[in-house]
Amino acid sequence: MLAGKEIRRAKLRFGLLSGAVGLLVFLILFQQALLGSLLLSFTGALENQSGTVLVFSEEARKNVSGSVILPPEQAQIAAVEGVGSSAGLAEGTFTIEAKGTDVDASIFGFQPGGPGEPTRLVEGRLPTTPTEAVASKEDASDGFGLGDTVTSVDGGITLTIVGLTERSRFSVAPTLWVTFDGYTALRKASNPDATAVLPSVIALTPAPGVSASQLAASVNEQVDGVQALTRSQAVNEAPGVSSVNTSFQLILVLAFLVVAVVIGFFFLILTVQKQSTLTVLRAVGAPTSYLVKALLKQIFLVVGVGLVVGILLTLGAVKGASAGLPISLEPTTMVVTAVGVVLLSLVGSLFTLLRVGRIDPADVMNRQNAGGLA
Amino acid sequence: MAALELSSVRKTYTSGDAEIVALDHATLEVGDDEILALVGPSGSGKTTLLSISGGLLTPSEGTVVVGGQDISTYSAKQLTAFRRDSVGFVFQAVNLVPFLTARENLMIVNDFGSSRSHKDAKARAEKLLDELGLSHRVDNLPGQMSGGERQRVAIGRALMNEPALVLIDEPTSALDTKLGEQVMELIVSEVKSRDTAAVIVTHDQRMTRYADRTVTITDGVLAA
Ligand SMILES: Nc1ncnc2c1ncn2[C@@H]1O[C@H](COP(=O)(O)OP(=O)(O)OP(=O)(O)O)[C@@H](O)[C@H]1O
Ligand SMILES: [Mg+2]
Asked: Are A372 and A278 in contact (CB under 8 A)?
């Protein structure tokens, strides 16, 4: 009765607070959606390929574009105990003409059937001949749609798009997946002097009973000059990604703290203002738990409304934005954020809860005129 | 059975190194439908006596029996339930919850774990407010009422749970003489019309004529 009536008679106050919490939740969620899509267009190709371990050359420092694996190393890697299957995965940037304009695209050459294949095919099929390619759904409207043809500017090789992937872009550029033979042809066409075309990294899958991290450790131990990383390490430790991650996370932490502080101060001020009223209620027989419950109810109500407002705003914004920028909001992100906001609101209100718990009913006699009636 | 029995109640406060004796071996009995006026100079211990009788403070020595229950050894939790069920309070100034209407200010005591249904509580609250001449004020917030009306709502709240004992601290000090007399008359008629005893603290000698008996307190010592 207490909690609800107070809110009903101070709608503006509580409404503004819920609105503020809603905006903060929106900030937190939208930022995470943005970060997710940004990171995906950086490293989606690594995340959504079938090799669970990727072996880089050591001097590449986890950068796919700077890595090259020589044939003897490739043989050594394939011979490491615990390797289930291995295949070369090549990556390079090519200027591609699509829809009449030249763009820099990232092209991956993979061994069909081997580790390193794209796993997020949403339309069509994987390439089987050297002149077929799979493109990203996100780039479909820029001349990379199913059935479109694109041409490499240096060498004039024409590729037909036979399939589309999602979440498999690389370096924020249009990304194509071709067979390793197709990749070799593209390389040789643009640079006729090239002798052999080497893979950038080796994609591995572990043998049954071996985990990806165990396999990576064995490769690092047994093969000199290379660095094996599990797929998630390769994604999270890719150059640029970790620094982007750190700065986004800092802002996220700050936003969460602001939620805690805003909620905490609001309820503290409110509680101090009505301290004398709460003392009277204790004096006429309200148990401490009654007052604590009323406060918790208000906190949950305000935070709940704030979460609904924030989630609706975010869903609206994601819908509006996804035309240009492919962003999406994972349900887990929403749930984790909601739980985080609720927990931090409680942490922010801890002091106020303790204060309510410590109200001494006998004070009602001492502080005769504190607060006044209205 | 007496509504209130204090036997050799002593209450001391320590402030710094000094020990203040607020009540010194106070012994007092209030009959089960008696109205007792408690008068005395400022600082004599009136509020302390009221607080101990209502379970807001525990005595340093002596026993307090209210409506047959010895509350001197009650825990804080037991005292909270005792205040809810067995006594009614009217405090000097801060009494009402500002964001609750007159009716809700009465009904809220029913919310603390009483066995009475919401519907019965509502009916009782409205009946009490009607008796107190506030039937036109049931949906008003305290801020929309006069001082006398607020004081009457507080009396209604004190009677809400049918207590054996009502404790009233300076009910008229904030009101002018005429209003004060009206409020006293209301208290007397409400208390007399049911099986309830009352202790009324006042510094105004004129108000003592409403009581069955007057007890004077000086420096913590009671005198009939
Ligand atoms: N919490 C406390 N700590 C220390 N001393 C106290 C406390 N409460 C009351 N006293 C002292 O105890 C004595 C009795 O106080 P009490 O409030 O009972 O007097 P009172 O008769 O109600 O006075 P008044 O008419 O001014 O309200 C006073 O000397 C007072 O200063
Ligand atoms: Mg007093």
From this structure: no
